[in-house]
Amino acid sequence: MPAADQAALSLSAAFFRQFLRHGKTLAASPSDLLNPLLFFFMVVTLFPLGLGPDPERLSQMAPGILWVVALLASLMVSGKLFASDFEDGSLEQLCLAPHPLAILALAEVFAHWLGTGFLLALVSPLFAVMVGLPTQALPVLVVSLLLGSLCLTLIGAVGSALTVSIRRGGLLLSLIIIPLHVPVLIFGSSAVVEATRDGNVASWLALLAALALASLALAPLAIGAALRISLDNG
Amino acid sequence: MWSFIHKLGSPPWFFRFGGNLVRWLLPVTLILLLVGAFWGLLVAPPDFRQGNSYRIIYIHVPAAVVALAGYYVMALAGAISLIWRIKMADIAMKAAAPVGAVLTGIALVTGAIWGKPTWGTWWVWDARITSMLILFFLYLGVVALFEAYENKAAAAKACAVLSLVGTVNIPIIYKSVDWWYSLHQPASIKFTGESAIDASMMYPLLLMIVAFYGLFAVTVVMNMRVELIWHHRQSSWVRQWAGFE
Predict the structure, then answer these.
(1) Which of A150, A194, B147, B224 has its CA 20 to 30 Å from the CA of residue A183?
(2) Structural domain spans, chain B
(3) Cα B171 from Cα B191, distance rounded (Å)
């Protein structure tokens, strides 16, 4: 029997349970997993319709198209990250838990990333072939999206935590997050562009990895602080 | 020294202090602006390649410099408010955001006006212009977030977190845009004005930069005083100041 002031669960156990809880909710509603992929699919379709079907030009623009659409898809889903926790009151319980809110929130963000960004990166070659991305760039696209979507999800989670208490905060979330997504977009699409020209891919991927690690270290702190502020507002 | 800093946190004291500050800083700033504008627009020699059109740098460069510095001022105020929970820092941050946004807007618009005769087009996706545009978005995000919160104390804290996240990002954004630009460097546009600037053009520019810093400080303090009156409109010192008591 643990003493009253002592946590009943160790930090890692709490992290794991939180991760599983969010993962189960995601797995219970397959539409939440499929919709971002469908969104990605449909928006990629819009580009040939808007730009014309010329395969040469499309394949030239493919890295940019794929990365912008991935960014938009991540933006679409990050609004929902903390919404249900905020509405049903579990966020307040998390705040009261003896563990740092930043770590518990990170567990949720990680589960969310596995369900969205990670999946999207894995299926991205399918859509890349549709817009004529050269085959030699496909592995780089997947790796860049894996690293990049982790950044996008973490930064998006900061925005989501800041806007979760605001009714109709979806558009506001985009406004505050898009400027912060700029470096991720640049590093990611540049890596893919360089891959199509057999150029220097490693340095862009290294930058992307550095960004992912930095946001992994810093974003949870901002997410924790932002969630507490949102609870004050709500 | 410490008592001065503590006094800064007291609304009635800051209100009076700010009033005195504005009373002498505003005329000084206006004189500096007039002298700088006169010097820059009329006295300084024309550029041998761009003629007189280069003179817009006397507005463009100071606005851009102070806009960037303004973001750090805002983020610093945000950090102070988060760490020491000083209300006055909240108010300073809220006051600085729209001023910085307007300065960034001025820098972008004057840049476009300058670009038309120089590059033959209103807008070029140049590294510096693009970074400035993103800075503009960052400011707008802070302003929009503040407006969206109902509880204004929470709004200030949320904006503080956002501006701190932005501060961490700004160097990364600037560097990334720089690299992005060098990767996609278009060949058709030649940039002039990269050469060292002559002293006869430099001194009025420095004067204008100082004047714009003064303008920023004056506007922010005036904004803060308005905010303070509104915030404390029920308290006796505001009612006494307004002559209601």
Answers:
(1) B147
(2) 17-187+199-242
(3) 23
